[in-house]
Amino acid sequence: MYEFRKSFCFFFLLDSVNYYHSRKGWRTKKKNRRIFQMNKKVLGMLACTAVAASMAVGVSAEGDLITIGYAQVGHESDWRTANTKNYEDVFSEENGYELSLIDCDNDNAKQLEAVRNFITQGMDYIVIAPIQSAGWDTVLQEAQDAGIPVIIADREIEADASMYDAWVGTAPYDEGVTAGNWLAEQLDGAEAKILQIEGSVGASAAIGRTDGFAEVMAEHSEWELLDSQSGDFTQDGGQAVMESFIKTYEGQFNVVVCQNDNEAYGAMDAMDAAGITYGVGGDVILISYDATHDGLQYTLDGKINLDVECNPIQAETVKGVIEQMEAGEDFEATTLITDEAFCAPGIESEFATTMTEEILAGRAY
Ligand code: GYE
């Protein structure tokens, strides 16, 4: 059973549920927003191009392709590539959608600009995978003023739930707790000297994993976090941070936690180059997050001890919410995509499934 526990967006998400359950239906709200748009047009408050775009929205909602603007984080990881492909597959013309996916290259300013362009273009729906969790109020207000529903996907934001319409994503805090619980179970009271390679600074996926793991760490006085630095969710970043960790802490650490698979690949390269062994039977316990295909291959091979899953296949769920909105039905204001965790063969755990060839064969991304 999923629990948000200390997740910072808990109250916002809860608010969101209440907010929408107090309303009759989506269609009324959408319609009201469109009337507001028309008034703005009559008053000449919008540029001619924006007027044309808004009118086109009205037509498309009545039967043509539904336009979706997706402000994607970037292309930093295999997880992200799988997520992008999933949106392209699901929001296809065949399925009745015209998807405009902008790769924001992990640049917050670029992402705000992408959302503003979607507003100007009069998209039917805007989906945002927020690079940073903070700083969204102004642009969300602009989307609301334009009458465009916004779905926050993948990550969480620090904004009141009344500022957006729905959320679909995963629970990084719980993933961090899983990693910590698994480590405690495996070490069974033994000492841990831990190095952590965090994800991108300010991203909820990094904040949540860090906080969840820290929560378990606080219960273990025999554990010490030697250092924790951002590897920006990339392989190059993971390698660079690990190389610098090795310079400072060589011979002093026995656990490395990487907040995604690509960082883990970089850390593995750095440890290989330094002759440090990791994985089952190695000097270092290696923990990763995401559980993409290659990450699970390394887990099956015993190179990664634990890989905590984070599922990038979310577009079908987002589409389901949009369909409910289109039909004027009550829609899910918050949907959690559930995850599990996988450990290497030879390891039994209460918190993770032991990897097999069958599990790997079933992993499409
Ligand atoms: O773990 C990482 C990606 O937001 C959950 O972003 C996502 C994270 C994922 O770059 O690989």
TrEMBL record:
Molecular function GO labels = carbohydrate binding
Location of the Periplasmic binding protein domain:
75-305
| Domain of life where this protein originates | Bacteria
What is one Pfam family matched by this protein?
Peripla_BP_4
InterPro entries registered for this protein in UniProt: Peripla_BP_I, SBP_2_dom
Q: Which Gene3D superfamilies match?
A: 3.40.50.2300
What keywords tag this UniProt record?
Signal
- What are the subcellular locations of this protein? Cell envelope
Any single GO CC term annotated in Swiss-Prot or TrEMBL for this entry: cell envelope
**Is Signal one of the keywords UniProt gives this record?**
yes
Its main localization is other
Belongs to which family?
A: Belongs to the bacterial solute-binding protein 2 family.
Report what the protein is called. Answer: Sugar-binding domain protein
- Source organism per entry reads Marvinbryantia formatexigens DSM 14469
